């Protein structure tokens, strides 16, 4: 599975407790299939490359989210985040499709009564989801997994503007060549890498890379963060150009929206 009204807060690096090393986990890369984003192994051929995948399914991602077609849901709640500023980034890897940062255990989110642990973040440029037909330069995915191996992903758009100190910190560990992994073992406060406005869209979809597994809970932030043009170009230099999957049909799905009454 291969990133404004609020101003992005500065990265806070705080003293943090040592936590056990997380198992290496790449939820977006299937080593047996040499899929790409262009040509004969591009997205239109993914279902042929991996016949047991969901890539030809009816509940695929990403999608174009149009405000006029979204539905307010009074049962949706503010996001329940348990990002304590003590989690360590274990390593960064270039899996050939994206730059991915793998986290040690610690930070998690709660959806209802279910805990989803943060596993990794990675990037797509340009963005995969479009908002009212607009494709942002960058989209960051924060991948969380629960005890039943069900997946919930935060999608955060990034637009060009003020530099992002959290991105500067992350890019300090670049470059990494395709297939290369670097140990980081530093703590990272995820709260300060999120938009100040936590309103969001949500729908049921899939991973956006083979095997395109369905049943993924997507939470797409309405407000983008800002990054500098130089920061976007640095990721572009290191990742495959245009490492995004095109828009998938909703096929009757309804995108729901949470908007805080206090905004």
From TrEMBL:
Residues 33-259 form the Alpha-carbonic anhydrase domain. SUPFAM superfamilies: Carbonic anhydrase (SSF51069). Its EC number is 4.2.1.1. It catalyses: hydrogencarbonate + H(+) = CO2 + H2O. Coiled coil: none annotated. Keywords: Lyase, Metal-binding, Zinc. PROSITE patterns: ALPHA_CA_2, PROKAR_LIPOPROTEIN. CDD domains: alpha_CA_prokaryotic_like. It is an enzyme of class 4 (lyase). Belongs to the alpha-carbonic anhydrase family. This is carbonic anhydrase. It comes from Muriicola marianensis.
């Amino acid at each position: 599975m291969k990133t404004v009204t609020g101003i992005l807060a500065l990265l806070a690096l705080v003293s943090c407790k040592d936590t056990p090393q997380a198992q290496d986990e790449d939820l977006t890369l299937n080593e047996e299939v040499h899929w790409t984003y262009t040509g004969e192994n591009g997205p239109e051929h993914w279902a042929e490359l991996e016949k047991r995948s969901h890539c030809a399914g009816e509940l695929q991602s990403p999608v174009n989210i149009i405000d006029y077609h979204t539905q307010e849901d009074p049962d949706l709640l503010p996001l329940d985040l348990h990002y304590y500023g003590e989690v360590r980034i274990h390593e960064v890897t270039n899996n050939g499709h994206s730059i991915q940062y793998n986290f040690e255990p610690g930070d998690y989110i709660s959806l209802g009564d279910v805990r989803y642990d943060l596993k990794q973040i990675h990037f797509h440029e340009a963005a995969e989801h479009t908002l009212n037909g607009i494709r942002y330069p960058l989209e960051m995915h924060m991948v969380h997994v629960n005890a039943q191996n069900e997946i919930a992903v935060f999608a955060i758009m990034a637009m060009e503007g003020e530099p992002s100190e959290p991105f500067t910190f992350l890019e300090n560990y670049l470059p990494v060549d395709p297939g290369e992994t670097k140990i980081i073992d530093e703590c990272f406060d995820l709260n300060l890498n999120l938009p100040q406005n936590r309103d969001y869209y949500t729908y049921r979809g899939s991973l956006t890379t083979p095997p395109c597994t369905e049943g993924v809970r997507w939470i797409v932030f309405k407000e983008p963060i800002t990054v500098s043009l130089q920061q976007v170009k640095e990721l572009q230099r290191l990742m495959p150009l245009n490492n995004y999957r095109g828009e998938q049909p909703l096929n009757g799905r309804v995108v729901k929206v949470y908007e805080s009454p206090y905004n």
